[in-house]
Design goal:
47% helix; seven-stranded parallel beta sheet; binds NADP nicotinamide-adenine-dinucleotide phosphate
């Protein structure tokens, strides 16, 4: 399968109003010459990004203001992304976390996380795969999960579970494709410097964060070169290999200790 070439092709990026999604949109336009469909809830941020992309990269940009925690908005994103232009690739990046003791999560936060990270992403991926399977054209769909997929993070238990769900779903689905020119990619970063990790609660953990520009670059490359599962950062990839040699209980309790400290909980 040849690598993807985004030049003058339409690429959908969810969660493009900040962080990794915004940076991937910027790099897709400036380095790859892609036309973009950018979506998120904050319209002002998307307008700002569109103006920057059009001015600096000279690409075409379409905005869809939508909340992926609702089925109606997910369906609208897919409809508007696949009608009026030919969609070439999609990066399902939007996501949220809950950082703290799981017993303290509210019902509203619980529902919001599952609907955003799981239901919304699975619904979108399902419709996108159907689109490419039916038209038989070249393309790629990438979901942004997390290294928490492999090494669940205590005090982000629901988040870890949601990302593992998407990883397993995508890996399994990748083997059902009949369109040989379509690839599915799971991009699984460790911590990144974005709004998600701005919270004071991340305190001492902030020194481990990867610059968002590097994460975005590696994300685009993994989609472009049709990686099935990719962890950005050599340190993270090597660390992941090493961690496979350690007992799971030891890894989990060490992480729990670090996170308890960061959250100011007794340790
Ligand atoms: N930062 C990290 O350490 C890290 C590590 C591993 C994986 N990740 C993953 O990377 C992805 C991007 O996160 P980030 O770090 O860039 O965080 P971020 O800066 O908080 O960006 C999250 C994006 O998702 C959008 N979003 C959230 N809820 C949404 C909803 N209901 N509907 C539509 N859009 C929604 C936000 O836009 P609006 O608020 O405007 O809707 C925003 O554009 C996430 O999937 C995250 O889990 C992050």
């Amino acid at each position: 399968m040849r690598s993807l070439n985004f030049k003058n092709k339409w690429v959908l990026v969810t969660g493009a109003s900040s962080g990794l999604g915004q940076e991937m949109a910027l790099q897709l336009a400036s380095k790859e010459g892609a036309n973009l469909i950018i979506t998120a809830r904050r319209a002002d941020r998307l307008e700002q990004l569109r103006a920057e992309l059009v001015k600096n990269a000279g690409v075409q940009v379409k905005i869809i203001v939508a909340d992926i925690s609702t089925n109606a908005d997910v369906d609208r994103i897919i409809k508007e992304s696949t009608e009026g232009q030919e969609l070439y690739a999609a990066i399902l990046n939007a996501g949220i976390t809950y950082f703290g003791e799981h017993k303290k999560i509210t019902d509203a936060d619980f529902d919001r996380l599952i609907q955003t990270n799981v239901t919304g992403v699975v619904r979108m991926a399902t419709q996108l795969v159907k689109y490419f399977e039916e038209n038989g054209r070249e393309g790629g769909v990438m979901t942004v999960t997390s290294m928490a997929t492999l090494y669940p993070v205590p005090y982000q238990a629901l988040y870890s579970g949601s990302k593992a769900f998407i990883t397993n779903f995508m890996l399994a689905l990748s083997q059902e494709l009949t369109n040989k020119d379509l690839s599915l990619t799971v991009f699984a970063p460790s911590g990144i410097e974005t709004e998600m990790t701005q919270d004071e609660k991340f305190g001492g953990l902030k020194k481990w964060l990867m610059p968002v520009s590097q994460a975005a670059l590696e994300g685009i490359q993994s989609l472009k070169f049709r990686k099935l599962f990719y962890i950005p950062g050599a340190l993270n990839r090597n660390g992941s290999r090493f961690m496979k040699l350690l007992p799971r209980r030891f890894i989990l309790s060490t992480m729990a200790k670090t996170y308890r400290k960061s959250l100011g909980l007794p340790h």
